[in-house]
Description:
This protein is mainly alpha-helical. The protein has helices at about 5-25, 25-40, 40-65, 90-95, 105-110, 120-125, 130-140, and strands spanning about 80-85, 115.
Amino acid sequence: xxxxxxxxxxxxxxxxxxxxxxxxxxxxxxxxxxxxxxxxxxxxxxxxxxxxxxxxxxxxxxxxxxxxxxxxxxxxxxxxxxxxxxxxxxxxxxxxxxxxxxxxxxxxxxxxxxxxxxxxxxxxxxxxxxxxxxxxxxxxxxx
Length: 143
Ligand SMILES: [Zn+2]
């Protein structure tokens, strides 16, 4: 049995061992986490919902509204159709932590983002796929 005293004296070593175990038994750790989630699904869902609602109020407070920030768009119908465009391409990170506990670090990352709907977000990342440009080029090549 690990006593509190033993733990505080050997904290670094114990944490290192635990980290090594997790790294060497990734599949097993994944199974354990999955089973744990299944056992406490409703508890986890309630926690995610609570955090998500907090995030929504943080977004409203910081951005003024939950909507596409592209001028002339302003889409605000469905949250699932909105993306967080991160200048350092960390956008998936924001999508992930939006249901986790809001921490100072996460809120700082959120503040670096711009909110775009899926359509505007795609247009920002793929300007060369603009149909007007593609069709003009095609027509010019044909003549
Ligand atoms: Zn938009």
